[in-house]
Design brief:
Blueprint (H helix, E strand, L loop, with lengths): L4 E2 L2 E2 L22 H4 L19 E6 L2 E6 H13 L2 H8 L3 H15 L4 E4 L8 E4 L1 H19 L3 E12 L4 E7 L2 E6 L9 E7 L4 E3 L9 E13 L2 E8 L2 E8 H7 L6 E6 L4 E5 L1
Helix pairs in contact: 2-3, 2-5
Length: 278
């Protein structure tokens, strides 16, 4: 196998200790900004969606655990895109030393080879390609990113637990004097507990008629706001005194002939609700 070198670093033969830059220990810590994004429950104020959270990935790999920071994920992703260490380094705006500190740290902690590199000819043009293990790690992290991207916007409802139905393993939270939301029973809650319910904009869909389905929450309301955001329509539907936002395509809006004041139903699954005790 051809070896791929930058300076004194040998990625293809990491067992040669004299050719390896020791990873900086501070790179194993969680990024400092993550601590600043922890939500204090007491005195909670403002919108959770206003808080920027920098993701880190808790990898479980063949009996080993490793916290992969967003910066290291970005490096793996860049190598996959550019098939080049130099281009990846340039794109991320980091030094070669930092790049290889990241690479050595990942390889040492997970006991894997992250990529296979090849020297170029006299004119340069070397390449770097992720190994199958590197691609598996990237795929797992991208899957998490996709979920995060799909759930950036949330409806936030501060309310109380109103009912327990232990026979059907369901519970209800009140959103208005006339409306309740159903969700799976959570034993750690009690009737009367103050809670914050989070429902993603993408998890709410809109219909013109109530229908029998597996969806537990079907609430009648009226459209009070329509706004175009990044080629999607954000629809606000008032249900009693509570507004629900839903992101839909313009095509769907046109087909349903949605307009301000129109009576519609907002629908979402019981499993689509995240609950936080206040």
């Amino acid at each position: 196998m051809k070896s791929y070198y930058y300076g004194v670093v040998n990625i293809s033969e990491p067992q040669k200790e004299e050719n390896k830059i020791e990873p900086q220990k501070e790179e194993n810590k969680i990024e400092p900004q993550l601590k600043e994004n922890k939500i204090e429950i007491n005195g909670l104020s403002g919108s959770i969606t206003d808080i920027k959270v920098v993701p880190a990935y808790d990898l479980c790999w063949k009996g080993k655990r490793y916290l992969l920071s967003a910066k290291k994920f970005n490096l793996i992703n860049a190598i996959n895109i550019y098939s080049s260490i130099s281009k990846s380094t340039k794109a991320l705006g980091v030094s070669y030393r930092t790049t290889f500190n990241y690479i050595n740290d990942i390889q040492d902690n997970l006991d894997i080879k992250l990529f296979i590199g090849h020297r170029g000819g006299l004119g340069g043009g070397g390449s770097a390609n992720l190994t199958s293990d590197g691609k598996k790690i990237l795929k797992a992290c991208v899957a998490v990113n996709t979920i995060i991207e799909l759930h950036k916007g949330f409806n936030e409802i501060e309310t109380v637990v109103s009912n327990f139905d232990k026979n059907n393993n369901m519970m209800e939270i009140k959103i208005d004097e006339d409306y309740n939301i159903k969700l799976p029973l959570k034993e750690e809650y009690s009737v009367g507990d103050k809670v914050l319910a989070l429902i993603s904009y993408e998890d709410i869909f809109i219909t013109l008629k109530s229908c029998q389905s597996s969806v537990r929450n079907i609430l009648k309301g009226n459209i009070s706001e329509m706004k175009l955001i990044n080629h999607m329509l954000r629809i606000k539907v008032n249900v009693g005194n509570v507004g629900f936002y839903s992101d839909i395509t313009k095509l769907s809006s046109d087909e349903l002939n949605l307009q301000l004041g129109k009576e519609v139903y907002v629908c979402f699954k019981a499993m689509g609700i995240a609950l936080l005790k206040l």
